[in-house]
Design a protein that fits this description.
Mean pLDDT: 77
Number of domains: 1
Number of strands: 2
Helix content: 55-70%
Strand order of the largest sheet: 1-2
Oligomer: single chain
Largest sheet: 2 strands, antiparallel
Length: 196
């Protein structure tokens, strides 16, 4: 039950992070210079002003600073929420793992001076071994999740810096009737039109 709760929280934060990366950034388009927007092209001097390399390095050094550099401050909550919750779960699982491992050592050693905690009295050594092995696995999975969120932070900063001057104003979705040649009838269809 405890593990399922952790998995749900982790998957919630990861899905929020992925959803935020896929959202359209309308606020940033308003900040783009109107001359760049009208031409649809970025001059070399303007491209030098917003560097994807700088955004990636900033995010690698301190997570979230690449998003600040890209004027996406709202993503800080997602980055630090995901990394903070995973760091908490890493610490919590590691604490429980060490406790159960120590209790298993007390149970399996031949020393009569070491006793298992009262709440674990009567538990078999196999059950304790399975318990600390499970919490070690949970800790390692959370550590992998932490590294993935950290990497996603860097990748997001780099990709958005590449698309910083990209104009999506001409991208639209229209519902139009379509004539199907095979069945010789009118059918509804969606059309995505874009201009370069």
């Amino acid at each position: 039950m405890y593990y399922l709760c952790k998995v749900r929280v982790i998957s919630l934060f990861l899905s929020m992070l992925l959803a935020s990366m896929l959202m359209a950034q309308k606020q940033e388009n308003a900040m783009i210079n109107t001359s760049v927007r009208n031409k649809g092209l970025v001059k070399d001097s303007a491209a030098q002003l917003h560097s994807p390399k700088k955004a990636a390095i900033l995010s690698a050094v301190l997570p979230g600073t690449g998003q600040i550099y890209n004027h996406q401050v709202w993503k800080l909550a997602i980055v630090y929420g995901g990394m903070g919750s995973l760091a908490y779960f890493i610490q919590d699982n590691n604490r429980i793992y060490k406790d159960y491992r120590q209790q298993w050592i007390y149970l399996t050693d031949a020393d009569t001076n070491t006793n298992v905690r009262n709440d674990l009295y009567g538990v078999s050594s196999d059950a304790l071994h399975n318990a600390f092995s499970s919490y070690r696995k949970y800790r390692d999975q959370c550590l992998i999740g932490f590294v993935l969120v950290y990497a996603a932070n860097i990748i997001d900063a780099n990709v958005y810096a590449h698309l910083y001057y990209f104009n999506v104003d001409d991208l639209s979705l229209h519902f139009t009737p379509n004539y199907n040649r095979n069945s010789q009838s009118m059918m509804p269809a969606f059309t995505l039109r874009y201009k370069f």
